[in-house]
Backbone:
C-alpha cells in the first residue's frame, strides 16, 4: 500500500518536536514555579510561599494598573467587536462590491503593519489632538487598542457568518421578515458564539499590549504590562512572576472558552 | 393566479453570462398542484426563486392575482417556500419555527399559538412542538418545514425538491401527504422536481423544462402519452423511437409508413408536418408481442429481463438493427414461453404512438 508523506516518520522528528515544546513551555513553567518562591530571587529556589501573590495583591500601583488594563480592554473589545460585526456583515452579506478586497486588506492591516509604526504614528497623531483639545484621559488608549483589536474580533465573526446557511436568512425573508427583523431574529442569535469569541480574543489582545500602550499613554496611565516593564528596570522580584502567572491564567481561561465557543453549535 | 410572462434570467455578464431562463411564459391556476420538471440546470429552481423574490428577472414579469410582483421583496409576497434543505431555524423549537411567519406579520400572540397548534396538527407533529429542530428526524423536519410555510396561509406554496433528501419509503409517504395537504388547504402548490415519477403521481399539471425553456405543459397523462418532442418523451419514462414516413394527417390523426413497409396510425399535433420523415415515439407498454409474421414490425428477441412486476422484451428489429423494448405486466405463475433468439412480430395498439415535433 502506498503511503502518503508522513512527517512524523522522518528522522529526527521526535527530537525536534521535543526541543520545540521545551523551548516554548519550559520558560513559562519556570516562571510559574518561581512565582511561588519564598525568597527574593527569581532564579534561586528557597521554598514554597504565596507571599508574592499577597504582595502583588496589596500593591496599590498594581491594583491601579490592573483596573486600568481591564477598563481599557473592556472598552476596546466592545468597540472593536461592534465594528467587526459591521465589517463582517459588509464583507459577507452583500453582493460583491468594488473595493471589497481593498476593504478586507484595510480591516486586517493591523496584523501586517509593524506595531511600532502604528505606535509612533498614534503618538504623533494623539499629541496633536491633545494640544488642540487639552483632553489627556484614558480614551486615547481605549481607541488605540480598539483599532488594533478589530482584525482579531473580525476573524471569528466572519468565519461564523460564512459558515452559516444562507437559506436560513432567505427563509426568514420568505416568512415576512424585513431585513432588520431577519438580522435580529435569525442572523444575530446564531452569530453570538462568534461575537463572544471575537470579543474575548480582542480582550486578551488588548490586555497584554505593550508597544502601542507605552507610546500612547500619558504619565500615570500605566497598564499592567507597562507597569511590569517599568519594574524590570529596577530590581526584579518574584512579584513579576506572580502577576505574569495571574495574567497567564486569565488568558488560558479565555482562550479555552473561546475554543469551546467557536466549536459548539456547528 | 400566477402569470409568468416572457421571463428571462441571465446570471453574470459578458463571456461568462448564463441564460438560466429564456422567455418563459406559463400560467399557473388557482388551487392547482403544478410541477416544474426537468434535469438539473434546466432553470426550474431559478423560476421558483423568481416567484419567491430571491432573485429578480432580467426580463419579463410575474403577476400574482393580476398584480405585478416586480420590485416586491420576498417579505412582501404572499408566497412561502419549502426549501430543499428545509432551512429550519436551529435556535428555535419546532413550534417557534412554525410560528415565525405569523409572528413577523405581527399577529397577536393568541392567534399565533392557535395557528401553530393547528398547523402542527395538520402535519401530525403536535407531540414534538417543544423539541429543538436538531432533535427530530429528516422526515419530521420536512413536516415542520411544510407547517412553517403553510402557517401564514400563503396564496402560493413553493416547494423546491422537498422530498429529495428522504429515503424511498418516506418519500412515497410524503407524496401522498403533500397531495392531502394541498387539497385540505386549497393553496396553489408549485413543486420543483427532477423525479418524473414524483411529477406524474402528484401533479395536476406538469411543465417539462430543459435549457431554460418550457418544452411542454400538460396533465401527467398528456405528457406521458403524448409527448410533444423527443426531449420530453425521453426524459419521462422509457420510449422507443422509430423513423417513419408521414403519409398524411387529418387533424390529430396521422397515417405513417414504418421501415418494415407496414402502415400505422398515430397521434400527431397540428404543428407537425404532413409529409416527410418523422420520429414516432412508442411507450414499451403500448406494444404487444405477436407470432412471427404478424403485427407491424418484425425482429429477433435479444433479451428478456424480469423485473418482478413486469418483464421487458428487447427486440432487434429487422433491417437496420434498431432496438425496440416492450414491457408486459407479469401475472401469477405465467410464463409466456418466449426465449432468446425467437423470431417475433410486434403489434401496436391503435394510435399507440405519438409523432414528435422536430
Residues:
Amino acid at each position: 500500500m502506498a503511503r502518503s508523506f508522513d512527517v512524523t516518520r522522518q528522522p529526527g522528528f521526535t527530537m525536534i518536536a521535543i526541543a520545540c515544546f521545551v523551548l516554548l513551555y519550559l520558560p513559562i513553567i519556570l516562571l510559574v514555579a518561581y512565582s511561588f518562591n519564598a525568597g527574593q530571587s527569581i532564579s534561586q529556589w528557597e521554598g514554597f510561599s504565596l507571599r508574592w501573590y499577597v504582595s502583588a495583591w496589596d500593591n496599590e500601583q498594581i491594583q491601579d494598573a490592573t483596573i486600568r488594563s481591564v477598563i481599557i480592554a473592556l472598552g476596546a473589545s466592545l468597540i472593536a467587536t461592534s465594528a467587526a460585526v459591521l465589517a463582517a456583515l459588509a464583507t459577507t452579506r452583500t453582493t460583491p462590491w468594488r473595493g471589497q478586497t481593498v476593504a478586507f486588506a484595510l480591516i486586517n492591516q493591523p496584523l501586517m503593519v509593524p506595531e511600532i509604526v502604528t505606535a509612533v504614528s498614534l503618538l504623533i497623531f494623539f499629541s496633536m489632538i491633545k494640544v488642540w483639545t487639552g483632553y489627556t484621559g484614558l480614551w486615547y488608549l481605549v481607541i488605540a487598542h480598539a483599532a488594533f483589536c478589530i482584525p482579531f474580533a473580525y476573524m471569528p465573526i466572519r468565519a461564523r457568518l460564512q459558515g452559516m446557511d444562507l437559506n436560513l436568512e432567505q427563509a426568514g425573508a420568505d416568512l415576512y421578515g424585513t431585513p432588520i427583523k431577519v438580522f435580529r431574529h435569525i442572523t444575530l442569535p446564531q452569530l453570538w458564539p462568534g461575537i463572544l469569541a471575537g470579543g474575548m480574543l480582542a480582550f486578551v489582545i488588548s490586555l497584554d499590549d505593550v508597544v502601542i500602550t507605552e507610546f500612547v499613554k500619558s504619565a500615570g496611565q500605566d497598564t499592567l504590562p507597562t507597569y511590569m516593564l517599568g519594574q524590570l528596570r529596577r530590581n526584579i522580584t518574584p512579584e513579576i512572576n506572580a502577576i505574569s502567572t495571574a495574567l497567564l491564567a486569565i488568558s488560558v481561561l479565555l482562550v479555552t472558552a473561546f475554543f469551546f465557543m467557536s466549536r459548539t453549535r456547528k | 393566479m400566477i402569470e409568468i410572462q416572457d421571463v428571462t434570467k441571465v446570471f453574470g455578464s459578458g463571456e461568462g453570462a448564463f441564460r438560466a431562463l429564456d422567455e418563459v411564459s406559463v400560467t399557473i391556476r388557482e388551487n392547482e398542484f403544478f410541477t416544474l420538471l426537468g434535469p438539473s440546470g434546466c432553470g426550474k429552481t431559478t423560476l421558483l426563486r423568481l416567484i419567491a423574490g430571491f432573485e429578480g428577472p432580467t426580463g419579463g414579469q410575474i403577476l400574482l392575482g393580476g398584480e405585478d410582483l416586480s420590485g416586491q421583496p420576498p417579505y412582501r409576497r404572499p408566497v412561502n417556500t419549502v426549501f430543499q434543505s428545509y432551512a429550519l431555524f436551529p435556535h428555535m423549537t419546532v413550534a417557534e419555527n412554525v410560528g415565525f411567519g405569523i409572528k413577523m406579520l405581527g399577529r397577536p400572540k393568541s392567534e399565533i399559538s392557535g395557528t401553530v397548534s393547528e398547523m402542527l396538527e395538520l402535519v401530525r407533529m403536535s407531540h414534538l412542538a417543544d423539541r429543538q429542530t436538531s432533535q427530530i428526524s429528516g422526515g419530521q423536519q420536512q413536516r415542520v418545514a411544510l407547517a412553517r410555510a403553510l402557517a401564514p396561509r400563503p396564496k402560493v406554496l413553493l416547494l423546491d425538491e422537498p422530498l429529495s433528501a428522504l429515503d424511498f419509503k418516506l418519500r412515497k409517504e410524503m407524496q401522498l401527504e403533500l397531495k392531502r395537504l394541498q387539497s385540505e388547504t386549497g393553496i396553489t402548490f408549485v413543486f420543483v422536481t427532477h423525479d418524473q415519477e414524483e411529477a406524474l403521481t402528484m401533479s395536476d399539471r406538469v411543465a417539462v423544462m430543459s435549457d431554460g425553456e418550457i418544452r411542454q405543459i400538460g396533465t401527467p397523462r398528456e405528457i406521458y402519452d403524448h409527448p410533444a418532442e423527443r426531449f420530453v418523451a425521453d426524459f419521462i419514462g422509457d420510449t422507443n423511437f422509430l423513423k417513419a414516413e408521414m403519409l398524411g394527417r387529418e387533424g390529430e390523426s396521422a397515417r405513417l409508413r414504418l421501415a418494415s413497409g407496414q402502415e400505422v396510425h398515430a397521434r400527431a399535433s397540428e404543428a407537425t408536418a404532413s409529409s416527410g420523415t418523422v420520429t414516432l415515439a412508442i411507450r414499451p407498454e403500448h406494444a404487444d408481442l405477436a407470432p412471427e409474421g404478424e403485427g407491424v414490425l418484425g425482429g429477433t428477441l435479444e433479451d428478456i429481463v424480469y423485473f418482478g412486476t413486469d418483464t421487458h422484451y428487447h427486440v432487434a428489429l429487422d433491417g437496420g438493427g434498431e432496438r425496440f423494448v416492450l414491457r408486459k405486466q407479469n401475472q401469477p405463475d405465467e410464463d409466456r414461453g418466449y426465449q432468446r433468439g425467437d423470431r417475433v412480430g410486434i403489434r401496436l395498439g391503435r394510435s399507440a404512438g405519438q409523432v414528435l415535433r422536430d
Chain B touches chain A at residues 52-54, 73-76, 79-81, 83, 85, 87, 89-91, 100-101, 104-105, 148-149, 152 (CB under 8 Å). The mean pLDDT of chain B is 90. The longest helix of chain B spans residues 168-185.
